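Obj: model holo form, ligand = NAP.
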Amino acid sequence: MADRVFSAADRQFMDHALRLGRRGLGLTWPNPSVGCVLVKDDVIVGRGLTQPGGRPHGETTAIAHAGGSAKGATAYVTLEPCSHYGKTAPCSDALARAGVSRVVCAVGDPDPRVRGRGFTMLRAYGIAVDVGLREHEAALDHRGHFSRIRLGRPFVQLKMAMSSDGFVAVKGGARTQISGPRAHDQVHLMRAMADAIMVGVGTVLSDDPMLNCRLPGMERRSPIRVVIDSRLRLPLASRLVRTAGDIPTWVLGTVGAAPEAERALRAAGCEVMLVRRMEDGSVDVAAALRLLAVRGITRVMTEGGPTLARTLIDADLADEIWLTRSPDPLGDGVPALAGPLPARYRPVESRHAGRDHVEIFLREP
Ligand SMILES: NC(=O)c1ccc[n+]([C@@H]2O[C@H](COP(=O)([O-])OP(=O)(O)OC[C@H]3O[C@@H](n4cnc5c(N)ncnc54)[C@H](OP(=O)(O)O)[C@@H]3O)[C@@H](O)[C@H]2O)c1
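Output (holo structure tokens):
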């Protein structure tokens, strides 16, 4: 079906729209980052992606870029154009008003406010609509949005670096540089493409991390920092708290556990959110992720230690796992994950990052 409908040029333009959309990952929450390319006579007349904060949408940005040239153009768009009146008019309307004659779309939007209505609206305007080009790739790019809509929680990407003999830090837990500069840069790029970065308080107590994006020129793409901290032990002197005024820092504790610490963290500029406590007193991470979704977060990268990693894996809440293995042993230290990953994690990619080796696992749906 796809081969009959879509030409080689269609594929090129959709790939371009996908690349555009990816640029906005981590910036557009609560909305998905949508890329759109307007093409007339094989020439690109307009390009756009969802703007930071989620508005304007990719289609309207591309239409504004094209101006009058949008008339009679084909729009390549990575997600079904919206059909509902929110803070802005629907993109389906905007495409029709601009005079677009055909829309090629990668994938439908499961958002109940859209869910096929965008396509119906476009067809009602007499616009030709072809759906399904690069559907798989687009579904991967929109995983955060899809997870928030379908599961009520963000897409969770778990990253962990370990020595060749399986330790994440030296004994005693002191901050330990495990991976090399190439893997390090990859982590910072992943941070830039996440809406939030999450650790357990154990990582803050031992490493005092900044959890920001430090790639040159991308410093402003640092995501929200989230600390899972049942008793609000996050030190006021930590770098996270001291920089909470510059980079939003959300502390997720348990209800009623530490009212004084709660007040002090709030006064220091952190946002404190409280969720249900598990029987052992720890944070109910499923509830914590639901809360993040309610706040609009669609993509979470978790860089916590082995305790949080194990909780997320055991609760089936880690969607993608990145394990970076250094060629060097530590001899002894804090063990990474006890036992192998559950069978539901399928290895999807294996690559080198300088001297380190990165393996990516995807959870079967
Ligand atoms: N190599 C790497 O990739 C990497 C990354 C990060 C950390 N590390 C290393 O890991 C060590 C820290 O390990 P860690 O396991 O203590 O760090 P962690 O997993 O980031 O933090 C664990 C803490 O989070 C809190 N927490 C609250 N609710 C939880 C829940 N439901 N599940 C899990 N944790 C919950 C707990 O403290 P409360 O009960 O007080 O809330 C718990 O002790 C350090 O040595 C650090 O250097 C290595």
